[in-house]
Predict the structure of Chromatin modification-related protein.
Amino acid sequence: MDPSSVLDQTIQDVSNLQAEFTHILGEIRASDTQLLDQRKKYMQKDSQIHKFIRQHGSLQEHPKEQELSEKIREKMSACKNLQEQKCTMANTALYLVAKHLSRLEKNIGLLEEDGLLAPVDEDADSSTEFSRESSSVSGTGERRRKAASSSSHEPSHVKRRRTGRASSPNQTAHTPSVPPPATSLSQPVASREDESHENTEGSPLPVVEKDVNFDLQDYNDDLFSGYNNNEEEDRTLYCFCQSVSYGEMVACDGPNCKYEWFHYSCVNLKEPPKGQWFCPDCRQEMAKDKLKKKKI
């Protein structure tokens, strides 16, 4: 075994890696599309129940609440299964990379033991390890890698001065040499009343530890995703007039009704109907079905 043969073997081993990754990522994307579709369906069912509660109060049960709840549970279970499939495919991609990397590191170790390859310098090894850790922690890519690189070459006296300033009573938070994006949510944060009480007594404010693994952008996306979804639900179009929800509305009991909810004025209603109620389109479809059955 020599370095050139190891290099050739490694290139040959990873030659199909791009095609495998393309297939895996395509499967994950397809699962994402299915998941969004399932999520949209159960959110629509859930909005029907909440709309009924807003109009009639929580004491009156939706006539199809049991059926809607069952469908919501089915859709959420399907979403869970899709998420598990995505995790399995992502782990498969990780395993493929780890397998080739482990084989390469093993061959490099054999070459070093045989004296065919010079051992990697300790400084270069530690620098590579630091670069690998910083790239895995980074959630925003180049921006944070530049920050880590610039701070790693910073003079030691500059770092000591910065740490000294952060430990003074006038500072409200600890400032490390490489600023992470946000504070960790797992750490307790003092309330405003506690901060004002400590300020009056002249004691230093608590130091809040920061988590380098926390990504502020991802947290903001998760935090406001529910708010954006509620806005989209309020803009859903109903009824023959294809308008948003307003005033009093009645739900059609037709299983395949394409509008589901109707404004009272659009269907000439002045009070809630008693028993089951079907929209004009559903009544017409039901009449057609009856005629077909009679002919048969």
Observations:
- The beta strands are 249-251, 261-263.
- Confidence is low (pLDDT under 50) at residues 150-208.
- Residues 193 and 199 are 10 Å apart (CA to CA).
